């Protein structure tokens, strides 16, 4: 099945992005080639990686092995905070494209804001604007930017980000941030869209996959809980980046176009929000604590 014909979102600069992407966060390099090849064979046409995942080379290798033309695969990667700054970020683009084995990126985003060094974050974003103007990237954006980061970025730069990739799932909806993204025409990309293995809890909740509300909705549609959660995102206008290295799950996560949740079902899933974040706290990201060297290609 060709996912592009099923569903795509149009970014604020007119570029089309598949509605469902394939994520490789925490995929070991040796697993990545096979997982991405499986995903592309199953019909995925968007792969989301990052310099800080240390698997861009393997993603590039899988795309080459797929036999698909370069323009058939939407390639997204992220600049890590250790490479922020104008010249440094331009060089980060070179490192990523060499590892991926591509000349142009479809989407390049900043992986985190640096709240205590926001001037550096702005310089990095201005480098993305330059790459966009030069045609080296087709779209630019940000990731894990909270409302205050986004507001400041918009005030001090000229290109509105095409996307903001953030943690969103039924137990952590970030409603205020989603509304702000939408208000500015920024597509919200959901990482950990089904609550994922990175989500740790205080023991009062189990996994979203075992949630009774989601289970009930899944049974009503003869679908899996994961498919219901992905459908919830899509119907609310979010692009999703599920990740798996299991072939059956990889296919299942793409098969989310043949059914529709009711308004009541969407609201029931919205109501599961706990306000508890699973990933790192964006306000606490600093180069001292999260810095890691991104090797040359």
Description:
- With 297 residues, the protein is of the alpha/beta class.
- The protein has one domain: TIM Barrel, CATH 3.20.20.100.
- The protein has helices at 3-6, 29-42, 56-66, 86-100, 118-133, 147-156, 175-183, 212-221, 225-235, 247-254, 263-270, 287-290; strands at 8-10, 16-18, 22-23, 46-48, 74-79, 107-110, 140-143, 163-167, 187-191, 239-241.
- An 8-stranded parallel beta sheet has the order 3-4-5-6-7-8-9-10. Strands 1-2 form a two-stranded antiparallel sheet.
- Helix 2 (29-42) links the parallel strand 3 (22-23) and strand 4 (46-48).
- Helix 2 runs parallel beside helix 3.
Per-chain topology:
Elements (H helix, E strand, L loop, with lengths): L2 H4 L1 E3 L5 E3 L3 E2 L5 H14 L3 E3 L7 H11 L7 E6 L6 H15 L6 E4 L7 H16 L6 E4 L3 H10 L6 E5 L7 H9 L3 E5 L20 H10 L3 H11 L3 E3 L5 H8 L8 H8 L16 H4 L7
Parallel strand pairs: 3-4, 4-5, 5-6, 6-7, 7-8, 8-9, 9-10
Antiparallel strand pairs: 1-2
Helix pairs in contact: 2-3, 2-10, 3-4, 4-5, 8-9
């Amino acid at each position: 099945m060709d996912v592009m014909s099923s569903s795509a979102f149009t970014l604020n600069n007119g570029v089309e992005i598949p509605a469902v992407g394939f994520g490789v966060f925490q995929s070991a390099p040796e697993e990545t080639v096979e997982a991405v090849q499986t995903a592309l064979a199953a019909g995925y046409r968007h792969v989301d990686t990052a310099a800080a995942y240390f698997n861009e080379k393997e993603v590039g290798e899988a795309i080459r092995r797929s036999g698909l033309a370069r323009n058939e695969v939407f390639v997204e990667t992220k600049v890590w905070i250790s490479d922020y700054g104008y010249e440094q970020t331009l060089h980060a683009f070179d490192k990523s494209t060499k590892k991926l084995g591509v000349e142009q990126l479809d989407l390049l985003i900043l992986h985190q804001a640096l709240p205590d060094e926001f001037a550096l974050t702005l310089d990095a974003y201005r480098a993305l604007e330059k790459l966009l103007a030069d045609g080296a990237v087709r779209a630019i954006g940000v990731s894990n930017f909270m409302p205050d980061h986004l507001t400041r970025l918009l005030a001090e730069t000229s290109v509105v980000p095409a996307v903001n990739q953030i943690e969103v799932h039924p137990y952590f909806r970030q409603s205020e941030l989603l509304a702000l993204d939408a208000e500015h025409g920024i597509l919200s990309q959901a990482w950990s869209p089904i609550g994922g293995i990175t989500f740790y809890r205080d023991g009062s909740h189990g996994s979203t996959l075992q949630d009774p509300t989601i289970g009930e909705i899944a049974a009503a549609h003869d679908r899996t809980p994961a498919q219901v959660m992905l459908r919830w995102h899509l119907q609310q206008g979010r692009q999703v980046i599920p990740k798996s290295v299991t072939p059956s799950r990889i296919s299942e996560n793409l098969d989310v176009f043949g059914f529709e949740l009711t308004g009541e079902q969407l609201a029931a899933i919205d109501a599961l929000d706990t306000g508890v974040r699973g990933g790192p706290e964006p306000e606490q990201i600093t180069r001292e604590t999260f810095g890691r060297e991104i090797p040359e290609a």
